[in-house]
Amino acid sequence: MTLTLLGFYLLFCLTNFVFFLAFLSFANARNRKTEKPGFPVSVIICAKNEAENLRNFLPSILEQEYPDFEVVVINDASTDSTLEVIEEFQKIDGRIKIVNVQNNEAFWANKKYALTLGIKKARNSHLLFTDADCAPQSNKWIAGMVQNFSAEKSIILGYGGYFKHRNSFLNKLIRFETLLTAIQYFSYARLGSPYMGVGRNLAYTSEEFYAHKGFASHLHLRSGDDDLFVNEAATAHNTAICFNKEAITRSVPKQTFKEWFQQKRRHTSIARHYQLKHKFLLGLFYSSKLLFWLLLPILLIAQVYPVIVLSALGLLLLLEFLVYYKSARKIGETDVVWLFPFLEVFLILSQLSIFIANIFSKPSHWK
After folding, report:
1. Domain ranges, residue 347
2. Of 15, 28, 57, 276, which is most buried by a Cβ count within 10 Å?
């Protein structure tokens, strides 16, 4: 029995090792120097009850050093002063275009319907998406993202991180989970199988959007306007990644574990609609992680070949540290790397809790 457990432990360790070898494809990737393309761009922001965030972050969009862009701000049936705030900015800056979604239209799949109206309002074919609570980390965000467009590349996956809060374990957990997710979707894209992007920092062309009939195939789902569209439309040939520090956005993280847990429940519920190969690989990664960490204390307590068990653990942690550190340096998240074994275990157990919770009840969606 003990040898069987050891065999499974080594198998799960090997599985994790192979995944992190694949993740080196992003960890070893080189950045591009930011340049200014010559084509016009439409930045699209969907806002629902985001008056305060728009006041705080919309100026960082308008201050971008880019020769030709507009900002399409969608008021998605807000009940606060979101519309008034957008109108105030529009009086100051004519580059702002307003799309006002009325309450009687809100049943049309909520955010996806609102985004579709925003895309139709945009006058440019190159579209750059972010959220109302996001702030670009430099005034070269637009240039850094859209320079990756080309005749072949019509979908650009960017990095949308979160603001740092010192002395907060939840903040480190959120940013570590975001780092791990980015390592995965960037690596899969570089290996020719893109599967998701984040709406906090994502770009694609209107031609690509209309070619796939927008969000039609998943319009009945209230979330997934970003990752489900990418999962359906992205290919090895039409997708590029952007991890330039000048092209990063950061947004306001959740302040309580309950809020974060509900957010992750929504994200996890959408993943089951991914393509089968992506569901299999993501499921294999997380299940092998979980079983590896569960078997480790059992084998150590039972003193089953501890030298072999610890040697396998050491080799895996060394590779993981290499991937995490090299990746985190690219996108400014190195402070979470030093706690990665603890954060990884906590995250995996949280994923298990989220999976169980989603079996018994449906998570709430877009505000």
Report:
1. 2-27+276-357
2. 57
